[in-house]
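Students often ask why we bother encoding 3D structure as a string. The short answer is that it lets us treat folding as translation between two languages. Here is a chain of 314 residues written in the first language.
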Amino acid sequence: MSNIKKNGNTAQMMDYQFPQPKEKQSFFQFLYNSKDGTYLGRTPSSWAKILFFYVVFYTVLSGMFAVCMQGLYSTLSDSEPKWKLDKSLIGTNPGLGYRPMADEMDRGAVIQFSTKKPEEGLFWKRMLDDFLEPYKGTGKRQKECTFNETHDPNQVCIVDINNLGNCSPENNYGYLNGRPCVFLKLNKIFDWYPEYYDNPNDVPEDMPSELKEHIGNTTETERKQIWVSCKGLHTVDEENVGSIAYYPSQGFPFYHYPYLNQPGYLSPFIAVQFEKLKIGTMVNVECRAWARNILYNGSFRDRKGSVTFQFLVD
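And here it is in the second language, the structure alphabet:
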């Protein structure tokens, strides 16, 4: 289409160009267009430029990433965490855990078995066998420590598994005669050292009288322990829990602390046997760790310094 534009005495002819539809290409023409000399829509020089750009871009990006990672790793240590104690996420209050603990969610925290069905007791026995497996054969890099000697924090002390009394593997941990054992241990916190209740006249008022008496009957050199006590969670549970025994002692000895990521380190444990649980009744148990720098909270949602579990023995 054209149009005539008058400019003075001169008439100019102007042509309007309308966009033409793009010429259709077949797939093979898209791969190589001999008319335009393009491969996949680009000329060789265009492909060379864009490839050069991305090579430079990713090279620079990789270099910057390597520099950042090197700077990060230079602030870290293979032997200890960067953030420790109150500066770390886990803080300075170790949690108390127990074994055996079933993996099946439907079991929850209930240790249930029947003395009339040995296979049920053996289920829990095998779990404790697995728990004790890492403690077997220790001694190559560990030392047998005592309360009467100075302890080198870098030295790893043996966790004795030969003094478990009625909670021994040979006794099936009490699961075949209705006197089950539970193994307690504290979570590891790097460079954390406990503050002990080593004076029987300076202990919390809510400490059980049996534990106060036990501390008073313990020699002064052996009072450097994180004490442990277990009881029925509620009043009715206290009537049903029966007598309780602790092996090899009622505390975690001082020479296992602090944890410094020593090679071969294993957390100490306490075996707790419930000798006279009421049969056929759900018994709720709370076990608590005692030290001046272990905070306690017995609430269900914000429990600290203790752990709860249930027994149901038929």
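Translate back mentally: Residues 101 and 109 are 7 Å apart (CA to CA). Keep this in mind for the problem set.
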